[in-house]
């Protein structure tokens, strides 16, 4: 399909490319700040339309003078470097930046300078964790008493007072055991707006339910006793968002069929949970789109039997006819294999007014696509707090060539001064985007 007409204008008067359908898939070579994309369920190709490609990127040192690219009117600068695989970023109410250094099994805290441009304090808040990823402050009313950390196998919490640079006491275990040991390892954590429930995202064990087998006591018995789309066997309580009380009790399945909700965030205005999701591999270059979506309680998002609504996964043909017509279609479809990770809503005032209420997501980058994609930060467009289905390339420039990249974005957070901070775990840096 051709580019859409009536393209919007960027700061400085440059027309933004607006792409839809087949044209929206593209590759890193067509990425540019301000490019708007719209992929709809009807735009999906058939499974196997292209071969499934293994195209793993090689991370190289950042070339001299290489910088991320941002839209006109914005500035980008190096905020921190020399970190050990920085992943999730969270901003404390006092402005401190908490960083999950997952491979190093620790949480670091950076205190920005008065102008927000650099850290003036750099401390290890907690260590000897187990592949920590998600971080959440509780309660989230501006005076939190706890910092929750989602390990790959548990949720723990630390006593917290505003300004703490080191944990004052050993962690308390809140959830002693999460599904773990194989497959997707990241766990994010967030609290509902009323503070009454803790949500934890858990990715699938396999790519496409390969080892799921048959449900105990048969499908009819399983479906009648479990939430819609709940998986079993090695996938029990996986490919899901779980809900607990803040003390870790009363576990329930909040939503199912979400293959790997890496980034979990609460929309400030509505209180709605959102997921930034990695979909399955192996069906070709342009299947299956990753997505960013609102998550409704009791919703089933398809995995592994369906994808993007009523599209049947050919590897599970006819396996769950009982679920047809019951699959929730995600809100914002992304270029397939982008590996969508961190997610944050923009509620500050430094950026232009039209950014307020929109979301940013970090795309870690593809391996299962012949034409490399991802390796950027995107802006999710909303209108009256509802996603339009469009997204916009916001930060690009991390790819060197068809084989090499120097940055893989993971975490996004809004600093107290209204700038956007982006972590990338390829070269261990954090970048600051300001307006």
Key words describing this protein structure:
single chain; 435 residues; mainly beta; 34% strand
Q: What would the average pLDDT be, to the nearest integer?
A: 95
* Helix/strand structural class: mainly beta
CATH class categorisation = Mainly Beta
Q: Any low-confidence stretches, pLDDT <50, length ≥5?
A: 1-13
Number of strands: 30
* Number of helical stretches of at least 4 residues: 1
Helical content class = under 10%
Characterization of the model:
The chain has 435 residues and is mostly beta strands. The chain has one domain: TolB, C-terminal domain (Neuraminidase, 6 Propeller), CATH 2.120.10. The protein is 2% helix and 34% strand. The strands form eight sheets. A six-stranded mixed β-sheet has the order 1-2-26-25-24-23, with no helix packed on it. It has a four-stranded antiparallel β-sheet with strand order 4-30-29-28, with no helix packed on it. A four-stranded antiparallel β-sheet has the order 5-6-7-8, with no helix packed on it. A hairpin with a 6-residue loop joins strand 17 and strand 18.
List the topology elements.
Layout: E1 18-20, E2 36-38, E3 58-59, E4 75-80, E5 86-91, E6 97-101, E7 106-112, E8 119-126, E9 134-138, E10 146-150, E11 155-159, E12 172-175, E13 187-191, E14 198-202, H1 219-225, E15 240-244, E16 252-256, E17 261-266, E18 273-277, E19 291-294, E20 306-307, E21 311-312, E22 332-333, E23 340-345, E24 359-363, E25 376-383, E26 386-395, E27 404-405, E28 409-414, E29 420-424, E30 429-434
Parallel strand pairs: 1-2, 3-27
Antiparallel strand pairs: 2-26, 4-30, 5-6, 6-7, 7-8, 9-10, 10-11, 11-12, 13-14, 14-15, 15-16, 17-18, 18-19, 19-22, 20-21, 23-24, 24-25, 25-26, 28-29, 29-30
């Amino acid at each position: 399909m051709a580019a859409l007409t009536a393209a919007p204008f960027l700061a400085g008067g440059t027309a933004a490319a607006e792409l839809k359908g087949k044209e929206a898939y593209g590759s890193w070579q067509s990425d540019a700040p301000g490019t708007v994309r719209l992929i709809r369920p009807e735009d999906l190709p058939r499974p196997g339309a292209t071969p499934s490609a293994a195209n793993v990127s090689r991370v190289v040192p950042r070339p001299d003078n290489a910088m991320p690219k941002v839209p006109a009117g914005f500035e980008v600068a190096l905020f921190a470097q020399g970190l050990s695989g920085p992943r999730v970023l969270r901003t404390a109410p006092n402005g401190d930046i908490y960083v999950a250094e997952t491979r190093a099994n620790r949480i670091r805290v950076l205190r920005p300078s008065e102008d927000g441009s650099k850290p003036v304090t750099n401390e290890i808040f907690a260590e000897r964790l187990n592949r920590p990823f998600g971080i959440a402050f509780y309660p989230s009313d501006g005076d939190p008493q706890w910092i929750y950390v989602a390990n790959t196998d548990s949720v723990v919490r630390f006593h917290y007072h505003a300004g703490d640079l080191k944990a004052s006491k050993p962690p308390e275990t809140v959830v002693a055991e999460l599904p773990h040991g194989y497959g997707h390892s990241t766990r994010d954590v967030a609290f509902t707006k009323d503070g009454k429930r803790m949500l934890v995202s858990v990715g699938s064990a396999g790519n496409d339910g390969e080892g799921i087998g048959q449900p105990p006591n048969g499908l009819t018995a399983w479906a009648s006793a479990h939430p819609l789309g709940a998986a079993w066997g090695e996938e029990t309580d996986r490919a899901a968002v779980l809900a607990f009380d803040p003390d870790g009790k009363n576990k329930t399945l909040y939503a199912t069929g979400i293959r790997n909700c890496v980034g979990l965030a609460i929309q400030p205005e509505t209180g709605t949970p959102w997921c930034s999701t990695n979909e399955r591999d192996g069906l070709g270059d342009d299947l299956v789109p990753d997505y960013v979506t609102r998550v409704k309680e009791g919703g089933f998002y398809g995995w592994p039997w369906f994808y993007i609504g009523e599209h049947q996964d050919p590897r599970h043909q006819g396996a769950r006819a009982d679920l047809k017509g019951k699959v929730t279609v995600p809100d914002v479809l992304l270029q397939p294999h982008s590996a969508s990770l961190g997610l944050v809503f923009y509620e500050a005032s430094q950026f232009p007014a039209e950014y307020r209420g929109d979301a940013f997501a970090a795309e870690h980058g593809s391996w299962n696509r012949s034409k490399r994609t991802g390796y950027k930060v995107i802006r999710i467009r909303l209108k009256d707090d509802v996603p339009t289905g469009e997204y916009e390339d916001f930060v690009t420039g991390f790819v060197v060539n068809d084989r090499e990249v120097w940055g893989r974005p993971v975490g996004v957070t809004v600093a107290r001064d209204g700038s956007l901070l982006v972590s990338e775990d390829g070269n261990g840096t954090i970048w600051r985007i300001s307006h």
